[in-house]
Structure formats: C-alpha cells, structure tokens
Write a structure and sequence with these properties.
The chain is α+β, with helices and mostly antiparallel strands and 155 residues long. The chain has three helices and eight strands; from the N terminus they run H-E-E-H-E-H-E-E-E-E-E. Helices cover 21% and strands 26% of the residues.
Length: 155
C-alpha cells in the first residue's frame, strides 16, 4: 500500500505514509499509535488499507483515547469532518463488533442521540463526525470517508 512495507515501524513509515495522504497522529505521550488518513475510502477498503500497514481500523478503548485522537483529527485532519472507526454490524445486524473481534460493549462507544438507527436498512459501519461532537453514527459502508488506523495491541 503506497509502497509501505508492513514490517517497518510507524516511525520508519512516516515519510511513506504521508505520500498516502496520512499523518502520524500527535498525542501527549508522544507515542506513535495512530495514523490519520485523509484519503476517502469505503469502510472495507479503509480496513484493508490499515491491515496492509500492519495496523487496524481504530478500536476506541476508552474515553481518554477517544479524546486524544479526536483532538488530533481536529488539528491534523485537513478539514475532514467524518472519519471511519473499526466498528460495524456487518456480520450480524444490530450486533456491533470491533475489527479486533470484541463486541461494542467492550471499549468506548459514545453514540450520537438516536443512533445507531440503520437508516433505510443500509447503515452497518461506524463513523465519528465533527458536526456531532465526534459521537458515533452508523453509516453506509460504501461511503468514502477519512479513517484512522492504529497499531495492533500486543497479544
């Protein structure tokens, strides 16, 4: 993907990642755990892009991580307002699951009021949206949005 060998660390990949319209997210701990990709892709393509980097779509573990990354989206997002996260109910309707296999009850989920609503029976993937104070919303997976990749957790 964009000439980035998956065996390189995020720090080694930073220059190459930038060629893919992505940036390493700034955070208070100065730990390179997330990259912000402004390239607009459908959810499945965004997930595949992250996997090709040896990463995964963003799994929000807690409110502190959510606050840190959404702050980076605001500062570094290039004006993008909607970003995919690694949560969907693509496998079983109404059962939201993170890309790492955990159910939505594990980790941090902050739904926008009235969500998830599976509007017109077609919303299976989850995004965070600046206009909704970065709260979660289910959306059509085929939409092209920016996305956040994160380093895989240690087993």
């Amino acid at each position: 993907v964009c000439g980035v060998p998956p065996e390189e660390t995020v720090a080694e990949r930073e220059g190459r990642i930038r060629n893919c319209s992505c940036d390493v997210a700034l955070n208070a701990a100065n730990v390179d755990q997330h990259i912000l990709c402004r390239r607009e892709l459908p959810w499945a393509d965004a997930a595949a892009f992250c996997e090709a980097l040896g990463m995964q779509l963003w799994v929000v573990d807690d409110a502190e991580e959510w606050q840190s990354v959404t702050g980076s989206l605001l500062l570094q997002g290039g004006g993008r307002e909607i970003w995919w996260v690694g949560l969907s109910d693509r496998q079983v309707e109404g059962r939201f699951q993170w890309v790492d296999g955990r159910l939505a009850g594990v980790g941090y989920v902050a739904w926008r009021e009235g969500e998830p609503n599976d509007w017109l029976d077609g919303e299976d993937c989850v995004e965070v949206n600046l206009a909704a104070d970065w709260l979660f919303n289910d959306a059509r997976c085929a939409q092209g949005y920016g996305f956040v990749c994160e380093a895989l957790s240690a087993p």
